């Protein structure tokens, strides 16, 4: 994105770093924020407060990246794929005003349709830009090729391993899905951290989770400390109230195929029980080794009773990864493996 209002404020030797970061999924912020002296979402400092985070320039870049992801989705799935699936009469529409943001000095407000065409606002993104100086967008095949080259780590690894080793199950795919409630703690944010290893090896302190070799990833639930049930002293937020009163649940996903392949290929003794990506073999391994912890900001370990709506699923599926980077990967046929999760805190089980 052409972040001319932000990038020039960074020192010269850092401008290129931040410009590139604004065009990728991972900002340097997350490496910088690992320093204990820096305010952190995980540690519960001001940046984890919804009212304060809006003043953080790094969060502005996160919003730029969200806009970029919407633009890529629209480009790759058809320009008409825009805020579809809303419940009529219940959810806001694309033409509803987005208070308090106005388009002019007469206080006419923005709505979602007003930002549907990003190029009409005078900018685009390198992933979508044509190779010439024309004002259009790049061909879909070129956009897909760029995305594959930038983010297709699993795809590249699978092709390389498949060409040099006979490993079972390279066409399988594995994901962790979760269903959660944003408001079980009356607006306090929290995270679900996942590990593939022995439960006894999980660090005692949540501050050390990400230092564990078994740490596989996590999902952060950025809640709202605005008004919610039981927190009537917060700032009024009608949408937050409606979501909580309707018991609205959300979903998240963590891909783990690459983490499992790493363990299958590595000769570390701690991973001796996994040798390939065959479905039955992986399910047996994950039943024994998939662990997770729920932690509220700042670093408060949560109990089962704190998150009654939490449901963690482990799913197995199939994937096709074409050699041609201009062709997208295809994922399909996912099935829940109840045995992996049914006896664990927050684990999904057959209804």
From TrEMBL:
<dbReference type="InterPro" id="IPR050316">
    <property type="entry name" value="Tyrosinase/Hemocyanin"/>
</dbReference>
<feature type="domain" description="Tyrosinase copper-binding">
    <location>
        <begin position="56"/>
        <end position="67"/>
    </location>
</feature>
<keyword id="KW-0479">Metal-binding</keyword>
<dbReference type="GO" id="GO:0042438">
    <property type="term" value="P:melanin biosynthetic process"/>
</dbReference>
<dbReference type="InterPro" id="IPR008922">
    <property type="entry name" value="Di-copper_centre_dom_sf"/>
</dbReference>
<dbReference type="GO" id="GO:0046872">
    <property type="term" value="F:metal ion binding"/>
</dbReference>
<dbReference type="InterPro" id="IPR002227">
    <property type="entry name" value="Tyrosinase_Cu-bd"/>
</dbReference>
<dbReference type="Pfam" id="PF00264">
    <property type="entry name" value="Tyrosinase"/>
</dbReference>
<keyword id="KW-0470">Melanin biosynthesis</keyword>
<comment type="similarity">
    <text>Belongs to the tyrosinase family.</text>
</comment>
<keyword id="KW-0186">Copper</keyword>
<dbReference type="GO" id="GO:0004503">
    <property type="term" value="F:tyrosinase activity"/>
</dbReference>
<keyword id="KW-0560">Oxidoreductase</keyword>
<protein>
    <recommendedName>
        <fullName>tyrosinase</fullName>
        <ecNumber>1.14.18.1</ecNumber>
    </recommendedName>
</protein>
<dbReference type="InterPro" id="IPR041640">
    <property type="entry name" value="Tyrosinase_C"/>
</dbReference>
<keyword id="KW-0503">Monooxygenase</keyword>
<dbReference type="Pfam" id="PF18132">
    <property type="entry name" value="Tyrosinase_C"/>
</dbReference>
